[in-house]
Structures are given as C-alpha cells and as structure tokens.
Amino acid sequence: MAVGPATVARPATRAGRAFSRRSLFEREGVFSWVMLAPGVLFLLAFVAYPFFYGIFLSFQDRRVASAGTFVGLANFVTLAHDAVFWQVTRNTFIYTIVATLLKMVGGLAMALVMNQAFRGRNLVRAFFLLPFIVPTVLSTVAWMWILDPTFSVVNWTLRNTGLMTQNFSWLGNATLAMWSIIVVNTWRGLPFYGITLLAGLQTISPDLYEAAAIDGASITQRFWYITMPVLKPILIIVTMFSVIFTFSDFQLPYVLTHGGPANATHLFATYAFDIGMSAGVLGMGAAVALAMLPALALLIVALTLYLRRE
Amino acid sequence: MRSRREFLATSLAAAGAAALPRSAGAQTKTMTVVHESSFIKQFDDFFVKTLAPEYQKLTGIKMNYEPVSVGGMLTRLTTMAETKSGPEITATGLNWAHLFDNSLVDVTDVAGEIGKKLGGWHDIIHDISVVKGKWKALPWGNIGQLEVYRTDWFKEAGVNKFPDNWEDLLAAGRLLKKKGHPFGFELGHGFGDNHGWLYPLLWSYGGREVDKDGKTVLIDSSETAAAVDFCRKFYKETMFEDVLGWTDVNNNKAFFGEQISCTNNASSILVVGKRDFPDIAKVTDHALNPQGPKGRFHLLNSQNHSIMTYASDVKAAKDFLRWLYDDKQLSRWLVSADAYYAPFLHAYDNHPMWNSEPRYMPFKESLKTTRPHTWPGPQNHAASESVAKYVLVDMFAKACRGDSTKDVIATAASQLKQIYKAK
Fold this sequence. Notes:
Order of helices and strands of chain A: HHHEEHHHHHHHHHHHHH
Number of strands of chain B: 12
Helix content of chain A: over 70%
CATH superfamily of the largest domain in chain B: Periplasmic binding protein-like II
Strand content of chain A: under 5%
Strand order of the largest sheet of chain A: 1-2
Radius of gyration of chain B: 24 Å
CATH topology of the largest domain in chain B: D-Maltodextrin-Binding Protein, domain 2
CATH superfamily of the largest domain in chain A: MetI-like
Structural class of chain A: mainly alpha
Number of domains of chain A: 2
Shape of chain B: globular
CATH class of the largest domain in chain A: Mainly Alpha
CATH topology of the largest domain in chain A: MetI-like fold
CATH architecture of the largest domain in chain A: Orthogonal Bundle
Helix content of chain B: 40-55%
Oligomer: heterodimer
Strand order of the largest sheet of chain B: 2-1-3-11-6
Largest sheet of chain B: 5 strands, mixed
Radius of gyration of chain A: 27 Å
C-alpha cells in the first residue's frame, strides 16, 4: 500500500507540536548538547571565567577591595625587573623537571613490578595508591614531621645507623629544602604514573613477549621494542598532566616551607598567592600566576602535535 | 526514549529546587563575627558559651562565631571584601584597616565612647586603627612577641638574669650553645615569629625600612649593616641551620622538644606548657626584647574588630560592639584569655588579669615600645607588600646563610624601591 507523504508530514496541529518537542530530545545532536550543558556551564563558570578574569586583572593595578586601573603590561614589566620572580621561575622549572623525571622513571619501574604475577599483588597495588589518595595537606604535614630537625625519623635513622653524626637540615638548607620538596612531590605523584602505565602494560598481549623471546630477544630488547612503543603515547599524556600539576603545585611547598628559606623553594603558585592574597596586590598576583601560561601552553601544544604525528 | 525526558525533567526540577533562595527575615535576628582561632581555646569558648548567649538573652539577636584557622584570616577577609558577603563583623589585624578601608565602616563614634569610658586608647594604636581620620578598627588586645627562655638552662650557664641588650644575649647564647642548648629564632617564611624579632632588631640598631613619607627607602644605611652583621653573628654562634627554614610552628615544637633554650614568641608557649608540659612550663619565663644601640622595640600585633560595609544593619553591629567593649564583658573576656591579649585601653593598665601570672607582665610592659611593621612608614598597601614578600626577613636570612652584608642590603633596597615606587 502506498503511503501518501501528506499522512506523515502533516499530522494534526496539536499533535504535531507535541511530536516536535518529543522528537527534539530524541535527536542525538540536541540531546548530547543538553547532556553536555551542565559540564560546559561548570567549566565556563569555574575555569573559563576565573581564567579570563585573571588575564583582565593582570592588566590592572588592582588592590584588594579597591577599584582597579588599567596599566597594560606594567605588571609584567615590573616582574621582569623583580629578582625574586626570576628566582621563582628558576625554582619552578627545576622543581618540575627533576620531579617529573623522577616520577617518570619511578612510575615506570612501579608499573613494571606491579605487572608481574606475585602473591598479594592486588594488596600491593592498593598500597601503592595511598600517597595519591591521602589529601595532600595531610600527607605534607606528615612529611613535616618526617623532615623535622628535632623529631625527624630520617635523621634518627641516619644517626643511629652511624651514617652521620649531625642532623641534616632538610628544610633549612636551601639545596636540601628544594630536594626535600622534590622528593615529597615525587612520592605523591608516583602512583599516578604507576597506575596509568600499568593500565597500558596490561593491554600488551603476552604472546608478543613469548614470540620475541622465542626469536631470541633479550629482556632489554623486549622492553624497548615491545613495551615502550605501546607505552609511549600513554607516557606522553601522563607526563603532560604531571608537568601541569607539578608546575602549578601550591599545597606542598606552601605547607612545608612557605617558599623559604630565603625564597629557595618559592614557586609560581606560592609567590602568586603571597602577592595576591597576603599583600593584596591582586593585579600583580594574577600576572605572576599567568607567567606559568606560556611554558605550559607550549608544552601542551608540542606534546599534542607529537601525539597527532604518531 | 521516554526515560530520557523523565531523567531531564527530574534533574531540572532538582536543580531548580536547590537554586531557590532562602527567605530572608527583614529584622536582624542573627549576626556573625569571624575570628582567627585563638591559641587560647578558652577565649573562643567564652564568646560562644557565655557572651553570645548573654547578648541573645538581652537583645534577641543570635551571635554566631566563625573561627578561621590560624594564618587564614587575611584570605577570609579578602574573600569577604571582594564578594561583599559573609560575616558582618570581622577580626582585623596589623594594617588591615588601611588595606580594607573601603570595605570597613567608620566606627569613630564607638571608639570615642569606649575610649572615654575605659581611660583612653594607647597612642600607638592610632597608626593602625585610624585611616584618614576615621577609626576603622576597634582593638581589643596585642599579641606581644617577646623573648621566651629556659630559666634552668640559663642558670646552668651562669646567666641568672635575662640579658638586657643584644650583645649580652649573644654572649649568653654562646655559653648555652656550648652546653647543647642553642637558641632558635625563626628566619624562615612564617607569618609572625620571624618579623616578631627582626623588625625590633633592625629598629634597635637604628635601621629603618622606609621613611614616614612612604617614598624614601632608608634600608641602605650603616645602621642596617650593623643589624645585619649582628644577626649573622647571633645566628652562627647561638643557633643552627634549621631556623632558616622554620615557619611559626617550628620554634614552639623545638622549645617543647627541649631543643632550644630561647626564642621569640607570644605567650602561647607558656600557656600550652602549663597545660601539656608542666615540667617545662615551670622553667619557662619571658623577657622584653633586648635593646640595641638605638633603643628597645617590639612588634605591634593588634587584634581588632571591624564592621563590613555590606552589613545589612550597621547600627545593630555597632550596638553589639558597644556592648562587647563594655567593661562588664571585655574584662571577663580578656581574663578568659589568660593575659594573652594586652589591651590598648588605659583602664586595663593595672587590671587584675596581670596579677594572676607575673611571667606575663613583660607583655604589658612591651606595649610602650611596640611599633607596627615597616614603622615609621605609613601602613599602606606597599607596607603589606613588603611584609608579604619577606623583604626584611630574607635580607637577614641571606646574610645568615653566608651572603655579604652589602649584597643583602642592596637586594632589599632594590625590592623596597620597587614596592614603594621610590625614585
């Protein structure tokens, strides 16, 4: 039986409106946007707005509880002449590069170990996640005690094993303080690398390793020619996230050293906080925070391009 | 298919319900006071358990008390001022009345009445509380930063009386360090115990950060050099490296860990000692900061109340503060704090609270020689920037770690010129 197009295209007017409303949500395009809307609105309100407001502030001489005046790039020019800002920049790069490298190597080792079959493997995996699960402020306070000159378990152990006769000043010596916060950051960030890389390792079929072993490939060769090619994209993504988190780290240095001694562990985030919130110079604080942007943007663009090429 | 619509309808209804505003009463039924948590728990408790119920009984207005963690009050106040919402009455400290001038109500009338009733205000408090001729903060007390020391170890080293000047304290420190009882004065990035002794040290040698005009940077002087040289010697001969990285909790921990024999702190060490470490408390005492060639100084650390301009009922807030600063209330509240807060009202110069523990007397005495951070410079935004950037603390800390006096002063001078926009 032939169905006339008018039957489908022209239903009764009232029923047509109801049908249209109903069908509107049945369309994937509309429904997906409706579902995305809360997330997009959340991002706009809590990420995009503060970000653009931060940019706006950085071009202003804006003191707390006062109206701002537009000063163009003056805040950035002032920062360029601020010796502490350059020390903070150097500190942030050292902190990020060293901590990320340590996390990368350590996390890979952790993933390789956890990928082996042994008794209590699941329990070990759960324990490895602890540093990532415990709130940073809480674990950092624990580290404060670990590194405390009077009560330090590290110093106690070193002294009682005869490895040293005097306490190390983990947070008082400029070099040791930087190393201390790097170690704590590495400890906290290792599980992120370890678990993510473990997920990647589990996608590799054991047949590949068996075939390679039969062909006479050594352990090193199997690692470089089977494991690494599979892990590389994951490693890049994890590194990208890790660099972003480490570069903008605040809680850890703020709780442990507050940027001391003599600015030796001041990072962008802690310096921006001190200027913006403690000194009330919101424009300059925003400028310090924005100083992180070029380096991070470059890194993200470079890694994304690399991933696309791969 | 139907489930999608149902899901959406339910979600939107729930979101709408959550977004509905709560109905607001037209008359003032409640007000909130925000404070940094006191080191003296009884002080906070007295407000919550005694003062607030009394005021509610008297006026029907419920007074809420919002404690903020130590060190977090400035951030809370910044948020309140920027968002124009939150508690009606706030605690302020240091130069915050100047920083938040636009957000604070003029309380000159209330300050005048209180001063008249309670013997008048100490002169020094005007620098902090009065902004462009208007009172913006009502001080209730000063948290003094003084010398805290172990009497037993000082006696063992042959020092029976706490040294009156820096050189004598250095000599005592040498003896005590040799006996395994070093000093521990904070040189790191804390928020109080570092500035608490370093500004007084600078001033006592005649050094100044900036002049009264707030534009002439004075740090590069022979007086500053003398203070820096002394500090380096004091650090090397009486302390140990950790102090360079200390924040405000460390000297307390070290004192109770019996690691140090002397530090600069508020009376909280003795208060906590009496509660948790009675044996140490018995051999703990306070002294005024030592004097230098140009006098003796202490750091002003006033605690005040201010009213936010966004408060819907400013009159109610002022009435509450009038009631709170009446001797009937204020006197009992100060007593509850065990003399931790030294009041700036002359009626309390000989208050019985000073008699309960003679070891607190130096805190009363110190009021005569207190000065605000960056004194004699104005208490403006630049002063806050200098403090927040630890310019002075780092100048001394860098000298202690081995940098030359000339270099550390040059760096500080360069930073201060930028901060104060000096030519």
